[in-house]
Structure formats: structure tokens, C-alpha cells
Amino acid sequence: LHANETLNRFEQTPKLVIAALNGHTVGGGLEIAMAADIRIAKKEAGKIGLPEVTLGVLPGTGGTQRLGRLVGKAKAIELMCTGMTFSFEEALDMGIVNHIYERVDFMDNVYAYARQFAPPNKASKAVGRIKRAVCSGCEVPFSEGLAIERELQQQLFMSPDAKEGLNAYNDKRRAEFKGR
Question: Which CA distances in Å does 102 have to 39, 43, 110?
Fold first, then answer.
């Protein structure tokens, strides 16, 4: 598989893809991380950026497209054209990184964070459909995005997990999702 195709698959899978950034995340490493849905960085573990311009090339594995969508066109152009690298804290402020976790028990805490999105805590079908609605909706006009959302909602209303969620709400208890 070509690298671009692999990264596109990250975005198209109904499963959340969480990138744990536990060291320098520059160039291709950041391009891979940006294809994930959520990025969690280890505190003071490295720099982040797309410095390809210093080699005379551009971030060619979707970096120009993904960074622009994350931080806006002007900021993305500035970051890539200067080739600067910056701290995870700066990346958090820009919206490139979702969270920064302490160095102690970093991966254990990333796994604990990830578990909240799976049964029995969350209806995994709903999580997947939310991801699909956002990813697909961002690529089409707003009215088409709303149509995608309605279609996915209709599918979910027929699922056993939706019935469990609604019953649990009515019964004032915590839902126990099964991923169906």
C-alpha cells in the first residue's frame, strides 16, 4: 500500500485512531499522527513540526492538507514554509495535539483514555458513526453533511445499543453497551 492510502484508511475506519506521541514528532511522523483522530503527547518528550522545506521539499504524505484543516490555512502555510519545530504545548494551543499527559505511566494513561470509547462505556457503533459523520461531512457542503448525519442516525436508532442507551436513560441507570 502507498503511504497516502494507508493514512486515508486511518480516517476511513469506523474505529477511533489515537496517536500517542512519546518523542519527537516531525515530518512523516507528524503526517502519520495527523491522520489519527486524537493525538496525545508525552509532556516534554520532544518537538513537533513539518520541517520538510529545509530539505527543499514539502510534506508530501497529506501533511499540507491535514495541517491546514487542523490549524487553518494561514497558520499551516507559516508553519510549513518556516519549517519551524515547536513544543507539544504550542501544538496543544494550536489544536494539533488534543492532550498532553505526564511522562509517568504515559502509555497506561493513553490506554485508559482510549478505553472510554469502547463497550461497555460507550456504544462503539455510535462512536464510529460520529467519526464518519464528521470526516465525511467536512468534505461536502453543509446540507449534504446534514443528510449524512440523518442517515447514520437512522442506522443507529435500529441498533441494540441505542435501545439500551434510551432504556438506561429512562430507567435512570448507567447504560451497558455491547457494541451492537
Answer: 14, 5, 10
Catalytic member of 5, 11, 31, 89: 31
CB 23 within 8 A of CB 45: yes
Q: Is 31 part of the annotated catalytic residue set? A: yes
The CA angle 148-1-81, to the nearest 5 degrees, is: 75
Q: Report DSSP state, residue 53.
A: G
Q: How far lies 27's CA from each of 81, 151, 171, in Å?
A: 13, 37, 51
pTM of the model: 0.91
Could you confirm whether 102 is annotated as catalytic?
A: no
Q: How far apart (Å, rounded) are the C-alpha atoms in residues 67 and 112?
A: 27
What is d(CA 34, CA 95) in angstroms, rounded to the nearest whole number? 11
- The count of residues in the chain is 180
Q: How many CB atoms lie within 10 A of CB 61?
A: 20
Per-residue pLDDT tens over the stretch 53-88: 999 999 999 999 999 999 999 999 999 999 999 999
